[in-house]
Write a structure and sequence with these properties.
By secondary structure, this protein is α+β, with helices and mostly antiparallel strands. 15% of the residues lie in helices and 18% in strands. Strands 2-1-5-3-4 form a 5-stranded mixed sheet, covered by helices on one side.
């Protein structure tokens, strides 16, 4: 079972293969944003890796980060927990002015991942 450490929140065990955005929200209990419902459209689920950054990306993540000219961050909705990771949650509901974090992302990565 992979271990997920969220800076400032501690370490939790996460079921292998669980989407990182869901692991941060449901297991680590961090109020991460996911305004588009985890579909790689909005970038509100962006995180920074401290350790354990995956070497692969989905094509949707690469396209969205490039479109927004974002570097040094990843989209938690496009990553599966398959090894130990340490992350910093950047976009949180607290202080965002939003009424909620967004609709719950599906269990599987969406859109269908094309790995690059």
């Amino acid at each position: 079972m992979p271990k997920l450490t969220v800076e400032g929140y501690g370490t939790v065990d996460v079921p292998a293969g669980k989407r990182l955005v869901l692991a941060i929200q449901e297991d680590a209990k961090v109020d991460i944003l996911h305004a588009c419902g985890g579909n790689a459209r909005c970038t509100t689920c962006r995180i920074e890796f401290i350790e354990g950054e995956p070497t692969t990306h989905t094509a949707a993540e690469v396209e969205r980060l490039a479109a927004r000219s974002l570097t040094g961050v990843r989209l938690a909705c496009q990553i599966a927990c398959d090894h130990d990771m340490t992350v910093r949650a950047i976009s949180r509901l607290e202080g965002s002015g939003r009424p909620d974090p967004g609709s719950r992302p599906q269990d599987a990565i969406t859109p269908e991942p094309i790995w690059v």
